């Protein structure tokens, strides 16, 4: 008998308005009973202080599943390494999914993907426009510096931080995740 499953995908920018406490990754708690136990957890865009990597590593461990946290920047990679050591990978999400995932995953499948990379530029890119996303975590001045630093990190890698590129990266990642979650199980 052939069985196909689909992965759960969470997109940071789309879920912010509907998730509790401004942390969309916690929506995972609402669906843990529906998670395919034959796959892995994937986070693209490692933790930068909001707690996602630690949270996702903990839930995947409780479920007995592999967890991978992928970030193109040295900072994101180092943050993930502090939390889960071997789960951390320094790469673009798309490249990790194309070239590395099948080599490092025990199952070769994805059950849950949290795509929180390629930061979205909110209306006017004014710090006050981020307040709903980071209500207590970061001050307006720190957020402005954070976004400037992120833009520089992207530029240093030959990437452009803009909303079109964010949409393109997330779409490509979603397509690759779909391929990794819809493989047949015998």
Largest sheet data: 5 strands, parallel
**Treating each run of at least 4 consecutive H or I residues as one helix, how many helices?**
6
Structural class: alpha/beta
Order the strands across the largest sheet as they lie in space: 1-5-2-3-4
Kindly state the number of beta strands: 5
Low-confidence stretches: 1-6, 11-22, 132-138
Mean pLDDT: 77
Q: What proportion of the residues is helical, as a percent range?
A: 25-40%
Cα radius of gyration in angstroms: 16 Å
CA-CA gap between termini: 6 Å
Helix/strand order, N-terminal first: EHEHEHEHEHH
User: What percent of residues are in strands?
Assistant: 5-15%
Q: Tell the overall outline.
A: globular
Strands, helices and their partners?
Layout: E1 8-11, H1 12-15, E2 40-44, H2 52-62, E3 67-71, H3 74-84, E4 88-90, H4 93-104, E5 110-115, H5 140-156, H6 163-181
What report would you give on this structure?
It contains six helices and five strands, in the order βαβαβαβαβαα. The model is unreliable at 1-6, 11-22 and 132-138 (pLDDT under 50). It is 40% helix and 12% strand. The chain is an alpha/beta fold. The chain starts with 7 loop residues before the first strand and ends in a 5-residue tail after the last helix. Strand 2, helix 2 (52-62) and strand 3 (67-71) form a beta-alpha-beta unit. Helix 4 runs parallel beside helix 6 (163-181). The chain has helices at 12-15, 52-62, 74-84, 93-104, 140-156, 163-181; strands spanning 8-11, 40-44, 67-71, 88-90, 110-115. The chain has a five-stranded parallel sheet, sandwiched between helices.
């Amino acid at each position: 008998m052939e069985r196909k499953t689909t992965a759960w995908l969470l997109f940071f920018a789309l879920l912010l308005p509907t998730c509790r406490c401004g942390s969309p990754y916690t929506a995972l708690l609402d669906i843990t009973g529906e998670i395919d136990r034959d796959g892995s957890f994937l986070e693209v865009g490692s933790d930068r202080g909001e707690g996602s990597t630690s949270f996702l590593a903990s839930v995947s461990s409780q479920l007995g599943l592999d967890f991978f946290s992928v970030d193109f920047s040295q900072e994101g990679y180092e943050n993930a390494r502090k939390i889960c050591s071997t789960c951390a990978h320094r790469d673009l999400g798309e490249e990790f999914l194309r070239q590395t995932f099948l080599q490092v995953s025990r199952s070769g499948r994805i059950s849950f993907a949290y795509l929180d990379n390629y930061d979205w530029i909110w209306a006017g890119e004014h710090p006050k426009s981020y307040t709903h996303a980071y209500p207590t975590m970061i001050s307006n001045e720190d957020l402005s510096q954070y976004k400037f630093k992120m833009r520089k990190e992207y530029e240093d890698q030959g990437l452009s931080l803009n909303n079109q590129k964010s949409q393109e990266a997330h779409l490509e990642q979603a397509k690759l995740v779909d391929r990794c979650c819809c493989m047949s199980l015998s």
